[in-house]
Design a protein that fits this description.
Length: about 500
Amino acid sequence: MAKKKEETELIQEKKYFQILAQGRILTMEDDLRKIKQGKNLEEKTESVPTEKEVLQDEAIIEEIKKNAERKEKEIKQIEIKQIETKQIEKEQIERERVEREKRKEIEEKEIIQGIKKRAFEEVAEVIARKKREEEKERKIIEEIKRRAAEKERKEKEIKQIEIKQVEREQIEKEQIERERVERERVEKEQVERERVERERVEREKRKEIEEEERKKELEKENLNKRKKEIEEKLKEFPARKEPFEIEKINLQTEKDNLLKILTPILGKEKETEKNKEKIELEERAAKDARIKHLIEEKRWQEEEKRREIEKEKWELENKIEKTYSQIEKIDVSLKNIQAEKEKLKKELEEIIDILGKIELHGRKVKVEKEINILEQEKINLLKNKKGIQGEKELLRKNILSIIEKEYKIEKFGNNIAAKEKSAKTLEEEKNFKKLRWETEEQRKEIEKQRWHLEKKDEELEEKIKIIEEQEKRIGLKEKEIEKELEKIEILLQYGLTQG
């Protein structure tokens, strides 16, 4: 590679000197070209040069030669310097080559020493690996023995734990059973006391209700009797009113007839009064005694006629006044009959209202009984619900305990499976497989227990849902009955009419 580099450098130097030489030639060619161009120009301008011009041309040529020589000397100096530089570079390259060869020799020695060292280390590693494998086999045998012993110990511990767990569960079950029996006994005693007290209160309440109902029934009977009497009396009123109404009609007819007769008499009376007034005017105007006497006699006759008419009018007016008086008496009688009728009607309405209230009161008692029955049903449902919830809570605790066992046995099974995969010998693998089978059987039994408890838990949950549905149904029925009771209360407070 160093040799190739030297050849490349030599080629580059050669090209460089060729370019310099070409530059010198090109420069001289340029100078000659300029001289020729100058001569051509002079030839064009003047056909024969002068002596001065010739001298000038020679001076120019001399100057050009001197420049060319100077440039050639400079190029030779550059070439000498380049040769010296090249020699120095060659020496430098040679020194570097010698150093590289020395380094290469040193590196080769180091490589040989490294190879020897690695070979020694590999031999040592093989020996160490063999020892490690022997140690590992020994440890595996010890580990298998240890695991077998550990397995046996764990199996014993698991059995002891299972025995303790069974004993603990049995104790817990017995404790729970004792508590349940005691709780049931206390609850039964409480229920019995509540039942006795409730029956006593109910007996007293029933007795009060029966007494109240008996009174209400007696009152209802009396009121119905009085109602019937009033209704019978009210039926008699048309017959009682009829003769008075007929007599009133007759009297009104008679009065109308008398008024018809009286009307022309009143007309005659007015006519006589006018005639008398006219006669009196004539009388005052008469001057002759004989004529005045005749007029006075005429007035006397008119006055007599008027008296007869007034007597007839008075007779008729007396008869009319008498009919008016009789009609007024009849009206008073009819008014008294109507007042009596209204009084009886009012009494009848009050009786009907009281009877309605008695009916409402009876309905209220029935509704309250229905509410009490529903309340008792709710209490019983709530007790059942609490009992189921308590049983469910205990069941959940047992499920959690089983889930904890399941988690432990699952974790133990996973550890066994991991050890089974990393087993080194067939015997070890077989032992782990057998242990895994036992673990899987134990887990299966635990899962069956969990299934049984979960199924029971679902059954209890379904029972709670049924109870909640019954509670909802009772709640809706209670609302309907409470609305009815509210209506009854309003009717009892304000009466059937206002309510």
